[in-house]
Amino acid sequence: MTAQPHRLPEGGAIDRSRPLGFSFNGRRYTGFAGDTLASALLANGVHLVGRSFKYHRPRGILSAGTEEPNAIVQLGSGASGLPNLKATRVELYEGLAARSVNCWPGPWFDLAAVNGFAHRLIPAGFYYKTFMWPHRGWHLYEPFIRRMAGLGRAPDGPDPDRYERMNAHCDVLVVGAGPAGLAAAEAAGRSGARVILADEDCPPGGMLLGSADAGGHGEATAGLEAMDNVRVLTRTVVTGYYDHNFLIALERVTDHLGPAAPAHLPRQRLWRIRAGRVVLATGALERPLVFANNDRPGTMLAGAARAYVNRFAVLPGRRAVVVTDNDSAYAAALDLHRHGVEIAAIVDLRPDGDGTQCAEAREAGLNILSGHAVIDTAGRRRVRAARVARLNDDGSLAGTVSALPCDLIAMSGGWSPAVHLFSQSGGTLRYDAALRAFLPDVSPQAARCAGASNGAFDTASCIAEGHAAGAGEPGAPGPVQPAAPVSWAVPARSRAGEARRFVDFQNDVTAADIELAAREGYESVEHLKRYTTLGMGTDQGKTGNVPGLAILAGTLGLSIPEVGTTTFRPPYEPVAFGAIAGRDVGPLADPVRRTPLHAWHEENGAVFEDVGQWKRPFYYPQEGETKDEAVARECLAVRNAAGIMDASTLGKILVCGPDAREFLNRVYTNAWDGLAPGRCRYGLMLGEDGMVLDDGVTACLSENRFLTTTTTGNAARVFAWLEEWLQTEWPDLEVYLTSLTEQFATVALAGPDSRKLLGALTDDIDPAPDVFPFMAWREGRVAGLPARVFRISYTGEVSYEIVVSAGDATDLWAALMTHEVTPFGTEAMHVLRAEKGYLMIGQETDGTVTPLDLDMGWMLNKKKDFIGRRSLARSAMRDPMRKRLVGLRTEDPATVLPEGAQILAEPPSGAPETMIGHVTSSYRSATLGRSIALALVKGGRDRAPGTVHVPLDDRTVRAEICDPKFYDPEGERLNG
Amino acid sequence: MAEPARGVEFRVCPPRGRIELRGDPGDGAFVEAASNALGLEPPPTPNRSRSWADTVILWLGPDAWLIEVPAEAEHAVARALEESLSDRHASIAVAGAGSVTWSLTGPRARDLLAKGMTLDLDPERFRAGCCARSLLAKVPVLLHRPGNDPLYELTVPRSYAEFARDWLEDAALEYADTR
Amino acid sequence: MLLIPCPWCGERDESEFACGGEAHIARPPDPDALNDAEWADYLFMRTNPKGSQRERWCHTHGCGRWFNVERDTVTHRILSVYRMGEPPPKDAP
């Protein structure tokens, strides 16, 4: 179990003194610190790591990085299970337990592999062609298809891990810590700029880590760490580039530690970075070659094979065929050769490779087959041989085919600069025919590519470009190594082979699929993508997209730039939902606002209701009481004695200045000219469209000072609305607004006994009705506390709102509670006001209701202009058949209609019904001993007396239209 | 074993008096009258504070300031302002009970705030004497950097105080131990 | 996420602001002088250009001031900001 038969005895950036045990599909293995799961598996000779998405073909490790399409694994299980991780990105830790995701029971024997035999039956567009018809069938097929084609297993409980978020600012963000990125960060750092260098790997180094001369990056990294103004974020992948140089990066804080992770650290941290400018040193991604059965385990990218042997000291095979259409794979061949891998041949699709490394390979005596291609592979769960044939100049097959026995095919189809983030920044791309690559062109943002992402593939050019980009200097384009014009797909000898030339390994898209889609008319690359699913896997087609669109171009007889690329969208790499949510979960998901009396409510068993962000007492159940019983008790207490309610959440705005009165005249429908100090008035506020926005009572404190109240839910909105008019439309008005919502607490004291009670609590306010009339306010001391008392009512009873400093609220409440009072919650308040037919904003109004609809035309002053007045003058606003407020009495007094229920004029007939309105408020009234409801009905009280019908799930309820003032219609109780 | 060093310390400040003052800084008579009452001129520079003795004035907007005074002086200072500004267009509102202030200090105090704030808190930019209204974890806050100890004062509307405290405690978990 | 230069507070994150839509639409001084169509035009109709647009924004969670922003609706580039009552920079002499 500790053998690691494919590990080299020395070398690599691994720590042989720290062996780590892990398991894969239940079997136990050992690797070393510094390994990825992929390198550790290869060290143990495990190449077969999963099955493909559609055909369930055996698949091996293709890459050594973020572009991996095949080696997708699941870590752990249950709530903490992590699906769809790339084995090439998972750092090994002690006890790591991984499974393949797309096979059952396992990759060695996968029941669904029968899909592979039915291959011809699953062509491009297979979902659309097969299962969308008959239409009703999809729901039958879907679960089966999803199971067969599933990727990973979703966690089955709340995520136990912790995710954090961090906002950061910098002058220069450098993405990628390869040679270009390190040089850029160093140059920017030396200029004194605030720099963040983010790299998805650890340690920094990028491509240098996988090259033979690994180690040169260490010095550069140390230099950066010495600079205070440079922050190096390793294991941090920048996943999104948004407007105004705002980027998102995901740091894997403790993923690499597994169970040993310290409990106080988050698993991952989402960085939100605002950068002055951005250097994208994101490197390039190697492309696979497209030939028949190019997906057999043991077939990998040449650069990856090189990284495994150099960085991880792992032999990915013993006898390798290297196949390439460019010079870069020669370095891989040489490195493999140096470490003892037998190179069966370097198969070069070009007639003649001429790079320095080609010469080196010749010198080393490696067998080079120029103008040849690998056209097929042999083997089942591991490649056994490569079939090689000579190519004609036009790319067609020539001559005989020979089989080269091997256990590794290292392939290179050239390199695609990683322009994903550049493109996300809004940057345009241009196709460079010489490089056979899309290169960054122009970005509307301060973004610049350097190094391989800019098409500079040699280390010296990378460093030079990085340095210039980091320093903000103009950069000279590096030398271009032209690529020979070779075919993007190698023909196969048989139809079966033609169908197994894979382009997108993760989604099992073949060259034949692309050709078929093009024949069927999917000529736009965006259509091709959606029809064939090319590039739609979790790897987003990092390896296969460019070959895919090149094959499309070839089929259509177009040039590659004419076909273009699909849109690059965030995220560059999958991001866990947990990381996006961060700590915005559970009780921290959204701010909660609490009144100064919250602790009392809590201690006294209140059930809370959310009103916006506020927690308000809904009702206070006593032992054994149901909600209905508690609400009934609270309502009756207010009607028959006295109740108190915490009304601190109402918005309070100080309106101050010589033009305050004029301002109120403009924003409220009614007139404020006559309101004297000591008096208050109910006001209705409309939007400019004439719809009711808010209501509330405004008190005149002195000639130039008014205190306006708003509803709880609209407080912030109304304050912003008033400020907007003052600042943008009427800057000439001398008015200042100050929000006092937080400064004051309000306790409503309501009921026939409230006058007596108030009298008992104050020495300097005379509650006698002749000196303290309805709609007046007085200042004095209540329970010894400085207070303003407003005689207003939302219940129809004699009622006072006592306003004290928020710090005094608990004392006031406690003093009130020494008397015979019943605390009541918002539900009782709702019932009490509905019994009076009083409007509740947000319940009777929904942005489509005018004062006329509410029979509140008396609130509209005719002698002045006000916001919304002109809109009410439109004839349609006076249409009597608009929905207007009515009361509803159900035939059966015990029936409480559901709020929102639709209303019909006639009993339902089964045909499509014409709705004439809906129920807006509905309660059981203890006072009246029956149910009551308010509704908006076409024609309103013109229908009274009359019957309407309210269809419910199981029956239809008959109700009578009536006056919404159910209780004390004359308002006699207001004066007690 | 010694107590582990904490990366950030935050504690509720004792109640303080606060007055929200609004007026036109272009009106010389307003500025003079306000300065006379406060012993200190309201700072005209955006996002700056000014302090002298027990009084701190923080810029809230181009015509708005928050005046911090000892709790027991709140009403007296408000009255003095009202008298001094009786013939000017100005708004004076006592606001001390409406918010809660925390002091934050320690090497990770800035990181703690940066978890929930988009303000650039670079000590070279958000220096001593800087203040700003912004959002912390969606809560409207006023952040002030009075000097180096405490590093920050965070003022939160009273109704949000409990939520903000829960958020700060949660966010500070990873900084509990700086070893 | 935009970075908006408030004329008072400098560059702040978009989350501190509220957008008030197209700028320089003055409320008619005498609404009764407008017929219904003209009133509806004032109330509802907006230019919605592709390219440069003048908008009102409010630094709600900062200094609380409304101001004008000239923004390219395609690139989101902010071309200028100016205070309420000030003329747009291009129109300035």
Task: Kindly name the structural category of chain C.
Answer: mainly beta
CATH topology description of the domain at 19-27 and 47-93 in chain C: Folate-binding fold
Reading the helices and strands of chain C in chain order gives EEEHEEE
Spatially, the strands of the biggest sheet of chain C line up as 3-4-5-6
Beta-strand percentage range of chain C? 35-45%
Distance between the termini of chain C: 33 Å
The 3D shape of chain C can be described as globular
Query: Looking at CATH, which topology of the largest domain in chain A would you report?
Result: FAD/NAD(P)-binding domain
Quaternary assembly:
heterotrimer
CATH architecture of the largest domain in chain A: 3-Layer(bba) Sandwich
Top CATH class of the domain at 19-27 and 47-93 in chain C: Alpha Beta
Share in helix of chain A: 10-25%
Counting structural domains of chain A, the number is 6
How are the SSEs ordered, and which strands pair?
The complex is a heterotrimer of chains A (976), B (179) and C (93).
Chain A: E1 15-24, E2 27-33, H1 37-43, E3 50-51, E4 58-59, E5 72-75, E6 82-86, E7 96-100, H2 114-117, H3 126-131, H4 138-148, E8 163-175, H5 179-190, E9 195-198, H6 216-225, E10 230-233, E11 236-242, E12 246-252, E13 268-280, E14 284-286, E15 299-301, H7 302-311, E16 319-324, H8 328-338, E17 342-348, H9 356-363, E18 368-370, E19 372-379, E20 383-391, E21 397-405, E22 408-412, E23 415-417, H10 420-424, E24 429-432, E25 437-440, E26 447-449, H11 459-471, H12 495-498, E27 502-504, E28 509-510, H13 511-519, H14 525-532, H15 545-556, H16 560-563, H17 577-581, H18 598-603, E29 607-611, E30 614-619, H19 627-640, E31 643-646, E32 651-656, H20 660-667, E33 680-686, E34 692-702, E35 705-710, H21 715-729, E36 736-739, E37 744-750, H22 754-761, E38 777-782, E39 785-790, E40 799-805, H23 809-817, E41 822-823, H24 826-835, H25 869-872, E42 883-890, E43 902-904, E44 915-925, E45 930-938, E46 947-951, E47 956-962
Helix pairs in contact in A: 5-6, 5-11, 7-8, 8-9, 13-15, 19-24
Chain B: E1 9-12, E2 16-22, H1 28-38, E3 49-52, E4 55-61, E5 64-70, H2 74-84, E6 91-94, E7 99-105, H3 109-114, E8 130-136, E9 139-145, E10 152-157, H4 161-171
Antiparallel strand pairs in B: 1-7, 2-5, 2-6, 3-4, 4-5, 7-10, 8-9, 9-10
Helix pairs in contact in B: 1-2
Chain C: E1 3-6, E2 10-13, E3 18-22, H1 36-44, E4 52-58, E5 66-72, E6 78-83
Antiparallel strand pairs in C: 1-2, 3-4, 4-5, 5-6
